[in-house]
């Protein structure tokens, strides 16, 4: 896989018009992430538009519900033909197992590839203080992320979303076949915004991530294509 394929750009935009314009300004991007804001505005039409352009799609809706409901959502996502989807690891093992089984079952029924299911461990907008004081989790960030990723792996889920700071730990714990996808990527000089656990693209890849997710450092750049290519060059370097 080339480096450009390993940098996923988050299309966190308000509507289809803004998304189309951004995608057309950054033709080097081959893998786009569609999240809550854009999917709520456009529905599946935007996914179909991206796929018609030959792009890969990460549908990041972070399902979190009872197993039956999540399984249904996973079957619907599978029918969209997306490459990656997310569920929250804190839904627990019955939910994670239902998600994995729903994707593989629906894909087999239709004779299409199943999306890889990624378990979101601890959002990159949370740090040790928030984890302990607001969520009352007292095992520390690394211990919590490691526990949730191991739970996901034991539940048949193909990978996890974590911050770049925990990547090496998860790689060691969950093995080379477990997909590790890291948001919280901040090239030198770009502001953290609401992110709390961040590293640069080069540092994240060096720690063993399979895919990096980058949003605002590309989408708000004056030249999104140049910003994306600079990240790819850093990853290559
Ligand atoms: O823990 C998580 C899980 C998902 N995200 C998503 O990644 C992008 C990051 O965007 P930036 O603009 O680069 O901060 C965004 O779509 C989040 O929903 C995450 O940041 N952290």
TrEMBL record:
EC number(s) reported in the record: 4.1.1.23
InterPro entries: Aldolase_TIM, OMPdecase, OMPdecase_AS, OMPdecase_bac, OMPdeCOase_dom, RibuloseP-bd_barrel
Binding site for substrate: 12, 33, 60-69, 124, 186, 195, 215-216
Active-site residues annotated for this sequence: 62
Originating gene: pyrF
Protein name: Orotidine 5'-phosphate decarboxylase
HAMAP family (UniProt xref): OMPdecase_type1_B
Entry GO MF terms: orotidine-5'-phosphate decarboxylase activity
Physiological role: Catalyzes the decarboxylation of orotidine 5'-monophosphate (OMP) to uridine 5'-monophosphate (UMP).
Pathway connected to this protein: Pyrimidine metabolism; UMP biosynthesis via de novo pathway; UMP from orotate: step 2/2
EC category: lyase
One Pfam family per UniProt: OMPdecase
Residue ranges of coiled coil: none
Known catalytic reactions: orotidine 5'-phosphate + H(+) = UMP + CO2
Domain Orotidine 5'-phosphate decarboxylase: 6-231
Subunit structure: Homodimer.
Protein family (similarity comment): Belongs to the OMP decarboxylase family. Type 1 subfamily.
Keyword annotations of the record: Decarboxylase, Lyase, Pyrimidine biosynthesis
